[in-house]
Amino acid sequence: MNIFGYNRIIIVGNNGSGKSFLSKEMSVFMDLPLVHLDVEFWRPNWKKPPKEEWIKKQMELTSKEKWIIDGNHTDTMELRFKAADIVIFLDINRLVCLVSVLLRNGKKRSDTPPYLEEKLDKEFLHFCIGLWSFSKARKPTIMNLHKKYPNKPFFVIDSRTKMKKLLNQWRDEKAKYINPAL
Asked: 0.70 exceeded by the pTM?
């Protein structure tokens, strides 16, 4: 798959599926601005912004010419879906996702606001329950949008191994593009 013809990319998938990892890597070799939705969304103490404000923010983000946006926020996903040139769906096994979320818990990450901290608490348990029920609760939204916009390129990555192979392939393609003698 040639990823280099796309300038507006959304990456969706379960919590812990690797959205932020993939988006950071792609942003570097594609030279596209990166937006982590969670950084834009969450207020101090994990407070949500008013819905109208959140919609307006996303309209501003998606009106730009080039971007990679990672994150779900399924209630407003259609805004991003419509604006994207391609949708990349990380359909990773939920056990792999759960292990990833447990391993990163408590660590500072660039895909969340610096003033927030994940802890092993009631909210984190709720987060993990949401992760575990992704296939029934949030995946249908993604698949329904895919059906609603059948001409929108929709690319599924279903394992970390495939993700790593694709990243290596894309990096190689970029190197050949920059230096055709390779």
From this structure: yes
